Amino acid sequence: MHAAPDDPRLVKPWMHPVAHVAEALAVDPSRGLAADELQRRRKLFGPNVFRETKPRPALSILLAQLRSIVVLLLFAATGLALLMGDTVEAMAIAVVVALNTALGFTTEWRATRSMESLRSIARTETTVLRGGRAERIPASGLVPGDVVLLEAGDVIPADLRLQEAARMQADESVLTGESLPVRKQVDAVAAEASLLERPNIAFGGTALTRGSGSGLVVATGMDTEFGRIFDQVSTAQPRQTPLEKRLDALGKRLVWLVLVMAVMLAVIGVLTGRDIALAIEVAIALSVAAIPEGLPIVATIALARGMWRMARRNALITRLSAVETLGATSVILTDKTGTLTENRMTVTRVLLADADIVFQSEGDSSGDTGVTHRLLERAALCCNASLGDEAEDEKHATGDPTELALLAAAARLGLDRPALLAAMPELREEPFSAEDKRMATIHRDADGVFAAVKGAPESVLPLCRAQQEGEAAVDLDDAGRQHWLQRADDLAATGLRTLAVAERRLGSEQDPPYSDLVLLGLVGMEDPPRKGVKEAIEQCHAAGVNVVMVTGDHAATAARIALDTGIVAEGQPPQVVDGDALQQVFESEATDELLDVRVFARVTPEQKLKLIDLHQRADRVVAMTGDGVNDAPALKKADIGVAMGIRGTAIARESAAMVLQDDEFRTIVAAIAQGRAIFSNIRKFVVYLMSCNISEVLVVVLATVAGAPLPLLPLQILFLNLVTDVFPVLALGVGTGAPGAMQHPPRSPRERVLMRQHWVLIGLYAALIGAVVLGAMAVGRLVLGFDASKAVTVSFLTLALAQMWHVFNIREDSGRWLRNEITGNPWIWAALGLCSALIAAAVYFPPLAAVLSLVHPGPDGWLLVALASVLPLLLAPVLRRLARRFAPP
Question: Model pTM?
Fold first, then answer.
């Protein structure tokens, strides 16, 4: 044994023979590390844990929630309300600030839990060979060079270079996305082998599902593959959501608008001879009215309502803005296994010498023959799996997914393995060999002893001397075997996993089973697409959302599922880019061609991150689905991460913004539709809110410039702001949205809440409402002879009712006049009923009327109010046409 090196780690241990790895690690594989060397390496490498990241202080997270421009506006509104003595409004705004701050703080604080989920991987125990004795120790105590002993069911405690592997299989789905257990072996592989092509490495955090063996620790803690993922999760930064960007941009505009308006009103008031105190009071009141303090809370309520709707559709939203973000999604990067497919192998084809049988997922299969029955009987005998209780076979099924598929197919023909074994007891087994890729079981029946054999076609077919045709065994020559191999290749090319099944009569149970076999046929299996996935993907395409499959599975399988689910159109050969080719493209930096690729296979976690970044740099809003630890960095980096709730790992769920409780792709499509409705609702109530607020400003500004009496008093402005800025806006925010939202392409991520056309429309609406209010006041004063109090009451009521009826103008342009998403929203009618009661109380409830300086308008006053207030509703279609002409979308 050579002296221990200063740093006993090996670059690319999978490319070296076991003896070379042991020599580089300075360890005797039969004895393990000595105590003195163990102490030295503990000091050198530290414990086998992920590094402790310094947690972000709670105060820092809290203060970050208060830096939003909208929150600053709310603080300003609170201060102004307090200056005006309006304690109720100040308290209401403070509640808004507290609610938004609490939501943001909780979201960020919760994200820190994902680090704990990854760290828990190392909190297991393992068996290690030290000084020639086997010991059970915490996994955190491992160092490079340790010899770890493995049994089925163990969680791999670190990255191991396997030195012994007896019938060993590992579930690596959480790391690689590979849907089937990976067979392990000890031979060296090429230096350039990807993560998915290193069968001699047992990766820390994965689980041993079958067999036993031992391995040399070659990486611990942050140096393991899981450690690299931990590092990516801790450094991946989620982008600001589209809604957050848009509301922030709108808030910045409103800051300047409000400041300029407040100063302008005060100066104009003083210049036109008004009392300075009254001019400043009016300016402050209008500033409070102009600030849409209801915007964040209504946006929050609208998103919460969408979250509630999504919860009813089995989608758990962990970030409120995720609902709206999905509405802006332009590309979905989706895993294959369990999201697009059922995540269970199913027999779909049986090839016999004289038949090609399509095996149905339920019920009888078309073209079943006696040979099919015999083939599946032999396949069910040649298994180590168990379906468990018939009532709960999925829950209690154990064993290799391929064998479970064979048992399920046999069960559909009435072949129950326990009953078969009772009639044909197993005498012995020739276990599966990774080198030979086949297995056999020896049984006794009424006719004597026979062998049931299954395995890879290229392994079984050369051993067959005949093929079963009906009741007879017909000789099979080299040309016939070659024909069967071609049939097997054709099946594999369609993405099916293929097995050959054969049998042989033996003289005794000790006879070798692998010669003079009679071929019964080939079995093709697949993980079938989920029901409804194809229709959901068609909806995505109709809505302009691209669906891209990113899987760790094989290219042929991915291509087949892409065709079956409609990711790739029928008749078009799917372009599949595998991990090796993808890496070459990334290295060449000519990545634009990847934006049009719809299928990626054998993809590594790092490559998923690069694909997300590629689409984001192309100005696309990216949704990413995932379920494993390997998906966590990508889920965090995507604009919205979508985790699987049933089979997803804790780290995946905690890194995601949305968790699918049914693992259904269709739920994502429903969320996209809901997200589009949410953004449409937000845009509606912002247009309504701004046009109402600006109309109040215009009424006072125009009257002030003209030197006319004030049509609205400060307290009247605040009262209107409280009534019409709250209830109709809330009703607009919780609407179900206009039909046909999924018939249009997604919005550009650069699109703001209010585009130029909306600002023009807001200005036109506000000008029209302001004009009818001033007109009503002028008619009342000059034509009908109203005194000042009655004229102000008329202008107040005209503005209040015009703003109430204005809610019907905020429908989609395609909406019909009488039946649309506004008139069909019951909350709108409830809001208008409540507003009407409050407006009536302002006039007829003496204490309130006295505070607001309002009087009874009389029949002529009410008639004038009714006629004037309905004019904006009647003229709104003309304004929409003008807005489209001067500011086309």
Answer: 0.67
